[in-house]
Design goal:
There is one protein chain. With 433 residues, this protein is of the alpha/beta class. It contains 16 helices and 13 strands. It has helices at residues 22-31, 43-50, 60-67, 103-114, 132-142, 182-195, 206-237, 241-248, 272-282, 288-298, 300-314, 342-352, 373-377, 390-395, 398-403, 418-422, and strands at 12-16, 35-39, 72-74, 85-88, 120-124, 152-156, 175-179, 200-202, 323-327, 356-360, 382-385, 408-411, 427-430. The strands form two sheets. An eight-stranded mixed beta sheet has the order 3-2-1-4-5-6-7-8, sandwiched between helices. Helix 4 (103-114) packs parallel to helix 5 and helix 11 (300-314) crosses helix 12 (342-352). The radius of gyration is 24 Å and the shape is elongated. Bound molecules: ligand SAJ. Ligand SAJ binds next to helix 7.
Amino acid sequence: MANMKLKRRKVIVTVVGLGYVGLPLAVLAHNKGYKVFGVAKDKKKINQLNKGINILPDNAELEKTIAKRPILASTSFEAVKKSDVVIVCVPTPVDKFYNPDLGPVKSATKGVAKYLKKGQLVIIESTINPGVCEEVVLPILEATGKRVGKDFYLAHCPERINPGDPKWRIGNIPRCVGAITKQGAQKAAKFYRSILDAEVRIMKSIKEAEATKIVENSFRDVNIAFVNELALSFDKLGIDLYDVLQGSATKPFAFMAHFPSIGVGGHCIPVDPYYLIERARLSGFDHKFLKLAREINNKMPYYCVKALQWNLNQLKMSMKGAHVGVLGLSYKANVGDIRESPSEKVIEYLHELGADVHVFDPYFPERNTEKTLDGCMVKVDAIILATNHKEFLEKITPAYIKKHKVKVVIDGKNALDKNGIVNKNILYKGVGR
Ligand code: SAJ
């Protein structure tokens, strides 16, 4: 579509939401020849972007392009009225009771509706459950008096960003698109095929497109819950699950290894299943399996804190008053993202049990209690490795732990040298090993 200029001008795209998903998409569309506007709520970020400052900390590759100010960003939706394509990439979180929160999608859609014009293609990239486009987004857009298929097109193309992944980047990840009308699906597929170097599959309808992403991430959540449950069971059986999984992973077909850990964090995996659970409930279906998987994964932070308490007790130490170092706040290695991070639950439980909690994560200086890893290690009796950041794996050797007189190691990511630590007479407990 980009190279197919509309008469005398470039095709214009507005991206609503300039975070992990929206900003890389806006820059990619710019690089592929579109004129791109951005809309976001955060005035400070908008000003930084318009000055050419990259606002995504873990995305160095954007640095160069953003310095050239490829997009014009604003807090206003006014750019929508000039646009041919409008893409909504806002968060779809859950509240503290794990209820889906479509607030950001609704307010973004209302902003688009205000400037909706004839012939426009509106695409929702936010992760949503089947039914949201037809039951929530469409009524807001048609309240303008315009009709889908006649005055505008509505499509869904679930985002598939994988933060921190060096191989799978926004430009080479295959995508699925679905729309309310056939023509809408064709238009959306044409747009994505013009910016991606990857397959773009047209789904049977917009509902199948909405279901695709939820299924992908629920698949991951249940597989992680499977190995987390095995971790609890194999603890009783004295089996090293981590070793077993390495063995199972040698099977070249029909097995996909997932690994037990201190918990499931991030903006996708622990959140998306709740959208399907809730929408299916409204249609009279109870997703027992998805709910059980969420329950198992949500218990893993507590499992790690209890393992620490048990090991301290072996040394006639109590959790109460123990100095405990929580190493890592981010939900995933080598990124600075704390959304739904298990570390937050670990810290909460440690406080409840009376521990004196020391925190260090190189990506969150403002949240640390100590300025450096050494500064943290020197103060603590025990450590919980909650995030397997590269810096931690390089520095936290058995000798390093011994040097700092740390007595107990809870390895929430099964990432440390267990045998080396045990050989230094330091108590070690991993997750399932
Ligand atoms: N986790 C485990 N055990 C595993 C894998 C992950 O406990 O075997 C935990 C991680 O520690 C993390 C959480 O689950 O806390 C999520 O991990 P993730 O690797 O799935 O990371 P995300 O949230 O960045 O997931 C993204 C997702 N991408 C999209 O939703 C577009 C997900 O679909 C991808 O599968 C995932 O990246 C990936 O493959 O890395």
